[in-house]
Amino acid sequence: MSYPGESERTTQxxxxxxxxxxxxxxxxxxxxxxxxxxxxxxxxxxWPMKGRKPFEAAAxxxxxxxxxxGHIGKRPLGFFIxxxxxxxxxxxxxxxxxxxxxxxxQLKRWPEQNEREQRWFTPPDAADAVAEAxxxxxxxxxxxxxxxxxx
Length: 151
What we know:
The longest helix is centred in the middle third of the chain and has 13 residues, at 54-66. Strands 1, 2, 3, 4, 5, 6, 7 and 8 form an eight-stranded mixed sheet that branches. The protein has a single domain (8-145), classed as Nucleoside Triphosphate Pyrophosphohydrolase. It has three helices and eight strands, in the order ββββαββββαα. By secondary structure, the chain is α+β, with helices and mostly antiparallel strands. It is globular, with a radius of gyration of 15 Å.
């Protein structure tokens, strides 16, 4: 996949968490949140954090953006690329490394609860809800490989 002007642009690295839970019937659900600007469905993600390993930063983003705490996998499920719109209206190309997060607790209050919506989806519905084809592929592949368990 190529983007106009891609050769002049560098890719910024981000980390993200794919929050999931297993129901009593053995089925999985995936938690998505809306982005603050465009309100599209995304996973909790952000910039790497100094002093934290990538999976630790992903767990922190899940807490801040979705109010969930759980067991984060140390190995990424994969990565996807998207265009992030900056406040000055420019775009930056981002590569997001995605870590599985088995949700153990959903908080009543968290830092960004008034800035985003959140919703639990079946994995196929979550894959259909996200705009980024690479993220949809990660969700679908994780379901097929039974990756919905922290590694």
